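agent> Task received from the user: take the single chain below, predict its 3D structure, and emit structure tokens. No templates, no multimer pairing.
agent> Plan: (1) validate residues, (2) run structure prediction, (3) serialize to tokens, (4) report one or two observations.
agent> Step 1 OK, no nonstandard residues flagged.
tool_call: predict_structure(input=
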Amino acid sequence: MKNSALVLLFLLITATAVNARDTGWLNPTETRSEAQLPNTAGWTDPENAFLSDNLYISCPPLVGCGQSYNKFNANIPSNAYIRGIEVRAEAPVVSVFYPVQFWFALSSDGITWTIPEKSIRIAISINDPSSDYNGTGGSAADLWGRTWTVNDINNLRVRVTGGYSSLDNIQVRVWYGLPGDPNPNTVQLLTPSGKRVKGASCEMQ
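)
tool_result: status=success, residues=205
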């Protein structure tokens, strides 16, 4: 009885959540101005957002700026289904009193964009103007209000708008599943050797 209780305790401790697959963080390789938006200009030096390298895109005072980024080269299998999309922005924040904020939308054709835009606000707790900081929008289960195919992701375009600010890097991470993958919201029990216990799983709410 004692040994059985210990085995059960081990199984409970080694329960693991089944996670969706993801692409890792991806950098864009192409960009275009979205200055046609009302009261919006283009970001200066927009190619500087391709990499995290302390070279910045910037928006001048008294205007809003719009730019979109694409060609993220996700390389997702053609039979995959999309579970969620995240966007990450890296930007300098010079003071605890002045957080920076950007608004993001997604498109698969560069014409129709997700609404509402998602706000990414980047703030700091101590003054350190020498460093950049990251903020994210979306999640592993956030489809931004629409469905996506692998082809849509291959043509994914990310639009960023903002005011007087600078931005170092924009990245996306796509979460996906393949036929036969378990539900990512389940917990499975494993034996001490790492084998799955058949029928021993539960749904996480």
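agent> Step 4: summary for the user.
Residues 2-13 form the longest helix (12 residues).
agent> Done.
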